[in-house]
Specification:
Elements (H helix, E strand, L loop, with lengths): L2 H13 L5 H13 L9 H26 L8 H28 L14 H32 L10 H19 L11 H7 L4 H4 L2 H15 L14 H14 L1
Helix pairs in contact: 2-3, 3-4, 3-5, 4-5, 4-6, 4-9, 4-10, 5-6, 7-9
């Protein structure tokens, strides 16, 4: 593995307010597995390596979501809504990767397409995986950590892990908009879409006006009033699992 990359993760782990050790472990496996050079002589081996690398990338994303799923971070109903949107957006991105994997790798096995698929397609998919690892995971965590360190406490908001959640939410939205991981449903500008695409700072989201926008976005999306949510971290299990199940059925 590139020593420079390893050192960067080590420095990030020291400063990040959440435990990213599992993410780093999967990142190390990802970097070791991703083919460094794809040639006409190692196409099949490179393809196998890309499947493995994708698996480690998925594990990185899942580890991030699971790390955020913490009572010390998700203290209010609004925090849980932000968490559910992060999970949903990352799920959409993973679904897009599934489509790209099918286009770049699965069709490689179809004899009729052999003349169209080779080094260029495998290399293109390899680059997309690397970009996802670098930009979606590492750079997002790095930028969020830097913003968290700059955060100035107020009477209403103290420096705590939930602040990192809101920062991460905004940084992820910017990154995913560039990578194409966020799509609006039915072409409408919902409250959720508005929060994700408009220049609202994480500080504003944590204030009363921002919290109200989050509440309205939740009601539009789930058809429930946030005031009826029990003070239970498991409240989002059903909506998240249903949507992920639908996506799996479509695949």
């Amino acid at each position: 593995m590139n020593t420079e990359v390893l050192n960067s993760w080590v420095d990030l782990e020291k400063n990040c307010p959440i435990n990213i050790s599992r993410i780093i472990s999967h990142a190390n496996e990802f970097s070791a597995t991703l083919p460094q050079r794809i040639t006409i002589n190692n196409l099949n081996k490179s393809k196998e390596s890309l499947f493995s690398a994708r698996s480690y990338l998925d594990s990185m994303i899942n580890a991030l979501v699971q790390t955020l799923y913490n009572r010390e971070i998700l203290k209010t109903s609004e925090d849980k809504i932000i968490f559910s949107w992060i999970s949903d957006n990352l799920g959409r991105f993973m679904r897009k990767l599934d489509e790209q994997e099918d286009y770049y790798l699965i069709k490689f096995d179809e004899p009729t397409d052999k003349s169209l698929i080779g080094i260029s397609r495998l290399s293109a998919y390899s680059q997309k995986l690397k970009t996802a690892s670098d930009s979606l995971i590492y750079e997002t965590l790095l930028k969020s950590t830097e913003e968290y360190q700059k955060f100035k406490e107020t009477e209403e908001t103290k420096r705590e892990p939930k602040v990192f959640l809101y920062i991460l939410f905004q940084v992820l939205n910017v990154t995913l908009s560039l990578l194409g991981g966020i799509t609006r449903e039915k072409g409408t500008l919902s409250k959720k879409s508005f929060i994700q695409t408009s220049p609202i700072s994480y500080q504003n989201l944590m204030e009363k006006r921002g919290q109200k926008l989050i509440q309205e976005g939740f009601k539009e999306e789930f058809g429930k009033d946030y005031q009826n949510i029990k003070n239970d971290i498991d409240i989002f299990d059903e909506p998240i699992e249903e949507e992920m199940g639908d996506e799996e059925d479509e695949d």
